[in-house]
Input
Amino acid sequence: MTDFSTRPRRKDRTTAVLIVAAGVGVLAVAAAGAVRARTDVVAGRAALVEAARSLEEMKARARALEGSRVGSDEERLAALVVVGRQAPPAAVLAAIERAMPADVRLDSLVFDYEGGLQLQMEVQARHPAAYDEFLARLAASPQFQDVAPGAEVRDDALRASVKARYRGGR
Amino acid sequence: MLSRSKVVLAFDAGSVQAARVELGLRSRRFAAFARKALEPDALRPLPLQPNVARPDEVRQAARAVVIELQGVGKPGVVVLPDGVARMVLLDVPSGTDPGDYARFRIGPQLPYPATDAVVDASPVGGGRYIGAAVRRDVAAEYEALAEAAGLVCERVELSPLAGLAALAAERRREEAQTSMDVVLGEAAFSMALFGGSAALAFRNRRRDPGPHDGERIGEEVERTALLGAAGSAPRVRLVGPGARRVAEGLRASGLDARTGWGDVPSMAAADAEELAWLGAGLA
Output
């Protein structure tokens, strides 16, 4: 394309304008991408801070739970004290005695306050029928529950172990 | 949305003409035309003397066509008529700037200082260029007319060079072994002979208005055709005022002559073939 202009002219700038516009467009897209990336970074940092905070909270809760477990132990001990106060050995012995026929004798008694008052009894009966009556009376008594006969040795007399949970009351 | 328009404003001895060209991304079309006739000798396309004999008349005509096309303030291409330039076919060495080489070759032949000339070159195939020199004062006259008409002058073209450049596509499509393109102006005309896609010869002659103008052009075309390969009659294509009539005369002489630019968007071929300056809007 020839040009016989006598002086430099304003050239057709459409192509240049299009190129510049395309450049501006690319720049705008790049800037938008940078802003988006920056926003992502900020959001990521915020998420990190939030995660760290959550972690601290979780640790704090874990510590609190540890503390509460300690508290449970204390409560358990307190419960044992309460149970001990509610079921003094004399009262327990009296309740057992009431359930015991004349031909049955208590040889030993173990008190276990874990999970209430668990009793481990070793008894001796002159004959099996007396032992059976003792078990029946224990099971029927409102002061006992979970009556479980254990090992029995039968010779002249009958020696047996019995487990039961003392509920208290009269 | 990405289209834009420009005005092509063409001057010649008998008229001022203009077209508004809509330029799309991949296409262009002529949206409107305007023409104002000039009184005889109001404008004389000459290489050395001032061309505008009656400035007011030519200025008014230019202003009228630009306003008619609503082209005031729009970018425009000014088309100089055939007859104002000295033109030469040049073999430009590879690695050489065609414009500089044209100035180097044409400068010494000018009857005025080379610094007073505006020189450029247009490729015509086979490593050849048509170099053209227009006297600066002459080009400035037309630029002043365009600016007075309200056009923002982007470029100044020479009608025959723009015409030959625009016909190149048609030449390639026809694939003739030997062909000749003739661009007729109102004051002068140019002929380029091609062997395949390479230019073989270029001649530029003034027209001689009168009853024998067509015959004389025909004779010049036939003489130019002799510069091609012996025994090979070229296919001739003509554009510009009188093209149809000259083509008829050539066909009567046995030459394969046709007219027009080929397919011109939004314009009847019969109208387009008489407008030599249209090449500036097509190329």
In short: The interface with chain B takes residues 1-6, 9-12, 14 of chain A (CB under 8 Å). Chain A has a mean pLDDT of 85. The radius of gyration of chain A is 44 Å. Chain A has three helices and four strands.
